[in-house]
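S2.1 Query sequence (ATP-dependent RecD2 DNA helicase)
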Amino acid sequence: MERIEGMISDIVFKNEDNGYTIAHLANEKDEVVIVGCMPTLAQGETIEVEGKWVNHKLYGVQFEVNKFMPVTPSSLEGIYVYLSSGMIHGIGEKMAKRIIDKFGLETLNVIQSTPERLKEVEGIGAKKIEQIVKSYEENRDLRNIIIELSPYGITPNYCLKIYKKYKDKAIEVINKNPYKLAEEIRGIGFKIADNIASKIGIDKNSKDRVSQGILYSLNQASLSGHTYLPKDVLIENSRNLLDVSPSIIEECIMDLVYDQKLHIEKRKNEYLIYLMTYYMSENGVCKQIIKLSQAKIEDLNINIDEEIRKVEEDEEIKLANKQISAVKEAINSGVVVITGGPGTGKTTTINTIIKIFENNNKEVVLAAPTGRAAKRMSETSNKEAKTIHRLLEMGYTTDSEELLFLKNEEDPIKADVVIIDEVSMVDILLMYSLLKAIKLGTRLILVGDSDQLPSVGAGNVLGDIINSEVINKVRLNEIFRQAQESMIVVNAHRINSGQPLQLNAKGKDFFFIRKNTSEEIMSEIIGLVNERLPKFYNLDKMKDIQVLSSMRKGDLGVTNLNIELQKYLNKPEQYKVEENFSKRVFRVADKVMQIKNNYTKKWETEDGSDSGEGIYNGDIGYIYHIDKDKKNIYVLFDDTKIVSYGYDELDEIEHSFCTTIHKSQGSEFPVIVIPITWAPPMLLSRNLLYTAVTRAKKLVVLVGDVKYLEYMIKNNRTNERYSNLAYKLNKFKEEGILLNNNEGF
Ligand SMILES: Nc1ncnc2c1ncn2[C@@H]1O[C@H](COP(=O)(O)OP(=O)(O)OP(=O)(O)O)[C@@H](O)[C@H]1O
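Output C-alpha cells follow.
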C-alpha cells in the first residue's frame, strides 16, 4: 500500500448513490487521478490517500484509493473534541481551547509539523510539547475518526468503539453507509447514523435508510417491552420517524423479511412483525417450556407427605395448604410456577423444596436475574445462588461485543432441579437462553411475583406463562401472621387489590407525610434522610435509607434529587477529592450505582488478597478514591470489592442517593423514602408503587400529596406490551402441535 497526500484540484465524477468518485489530486510534485469510494470529498480539501497504482485500459495510470483521510480537518469543533477528549496526555479542555484560539484550523498541522510553535500558547513548555507530540503520534487513525465524527455528536468513547470495529477502514465504511454504525456499533443508534447520512447527502428514500429506520422502530418498541409490533403500528411509527411513504416502508419490510432480519407472523387477521431475535426467542420459550413440562421426569419414589412432615419438624413450621400444593407440584412436575405477593411464604416454600430434593440426593441449583436478587436468595436459603448469566456461564464473542452462553442445548446445566427466583424480572431473551440450557427431565421451578413491574427487557414472560393456563402454577395468597404485623406487607397487598392504605399507625412501619409543593417535599425528604430517620431509628443514612423516585426528570426526579441529596449527605470538604464533569460532580464517599451488567469488570480487595470479575446493574457502592492523574474513580462495592472506572467509563455508574423504582427491582433496603407527586400517568401506576413499597424491609415513608397516592393505587392499567407468548402457549396446547411435530410452526 502506498500513501500520497495532496489537494483535490478537481472532482471529475461522483456517484451520489454509492460515493464512487474520480478526482484530481495535486501536490508539489504532480497531479494525479485518484478513484474510489470517497463520498464526502470536496474540491479544495487536502487529503491523504492510501491505495495502489493501477493501469486502466482506457484511462491509463491512476491511483486506486482504499482509504482516505482529511489532512486538515474541516471543523474547529472536531479538533476541539479531539484535543480535549483526554486522548492527548497533557491537554485538558481549557488548554485545548487556548491552543485552538491560537492556531485555528492549523492546530493539527502545527502539532504535526512545527510543534515547537506550541510554546506560543501560555502554559506550554518543552516537556509538555514532547508529551503532546508523543500521544499525537500514538493515535493517528483514531484521531481522524474523532475529528470526522464528533461534529455529528459522536463522543470520543464511541469513536474508539468504531475504531476498534473497523480499524483504519472506519471513515470509508461510514461514508459508504453510515447506517452500518446503527447496525453494528452498540450505543450508536439510527438517529446519529441518519444525521451523518443527511450531511453526506444520502437520499431520504434510500432503502438503507428506510430499512434501518424500520429496524430502529422495532428496537425502540422492544425497549418499551414489546416483542413485536402489529404491522399497522410499525408502519405508522416508521412513517413518523422517516417521513417516507407507507409503500416504501412496506417494500422494505418485505426485503428485511427476505433477509431474515424480520419475521412476520399471522394471528387471526393481524400481521405481527418481529425482529428475528425476538421471534426466535418467543417461539423458543414457548416450545422449550412445553417440552420441559411434558418431559418424563425421574420418579423420586418418596412419600411426599412424609418428606414434608420431616422438614416441618426440623424447621418447626407447619406449611399452609397452598404451600404444600406448591411443594407437591414442584416434585411431580417438569415445570411449575410459584407466585405470590410479599409475606405469602414463597421463600419458606422454596426452602422446603430444596431440602426435600437434597434429602433425596438430588442436585438443586439456584439463580436469580440480578446480582442483588441472587445475593438475597443465597442469604434466605443458605445455599449459593448465582445470577442467571453466571449459571449459564456467560462469555463474550472474540470481538467482545456479543454475549454468549457456554451453557446451552449442547452443554446443558448439570442439575436435577433448577430454581429461579424473581422471574418477573426475566425478559424473553434471557428466558430463552435459560430454557435452552435446561435438559429435558430437569425440573424447573419458577418463582416470582407477577404483580411486580414487568422485566426491563421485552416480553411479559412470567405474566404470560401464568395467564396461559398451560404450565402448572400455584398462587400463594395467605399472608402469614408474622407478615401481617407489617404494614408494609399489608399495604402492599392493599395496593394490589386497589384498596386504601393503612397509614401512620403508631409504632408501625408505614408512614405518609403530607406535603404539597415540590420544595416542601424536597426539604422534607432531605430532613428525613439526613437527620430524623438516622437519629430516630439509629440508621446509617447512606447505607440503610434509599430514596426512590418514579421518574428521572423534574424537581423530584432522580437526577435532581441526587444533586440535592448530595449537597447534604456528602457535602464538599477540603479533604474529599472531587471531579467535576459539568453535569455531575463525583466526590469521594458518594453513593453510586452500576447501571449496566458488566460481567468482565475486574474487582480486587484493598490488600489484593482476593479478586474477581463482574459488577451488575443495580449494584450500589461508594466512591473510595479519585485519582486525577490517572483519571480513575475507584468505587467500593459490598464493603470489600474495589473497582476502578476510567473517566471514559463513567457512563456505567450514576449517583444513587436516589434511584428509579425500575432500577430498584430485585433489591431490598431497610428503609425506603418515596416522593409522591405529579408525574405522567404511566409513571403513576399501581405496580410501580407496589414494586417500590415491597423493596422496604423495615420502614416505608411516603412524602407528598395523597391524591397522587390514590391515583396510583387506582391506576392498574399496566402498560400493555405486545407479547404473543400466552397466545402461542395456548395454541400449542390446544392444537397439540408439539406432540406431533417437534419443530412446531
Ligand atoms: N406456613 C407458615 N406458617 C407460619 N409462618 C409462615 C409460614 N410460611 C411462612 N411463614 C412466615 O411468613 C413470613 C413470610 O414468609 P416468606 O419469607 O417465606 O414469604 P415470601 O413470600 O418469600 O416473602 P417476601 O416476598 O416478602 O420475601 C416469614 O416470617 C415466614 O417465617
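Residues 513 and 703 are 5 Å apart (CA to CA). The chain has four domains: 2-70, 207-281, 283-479, 499-714.
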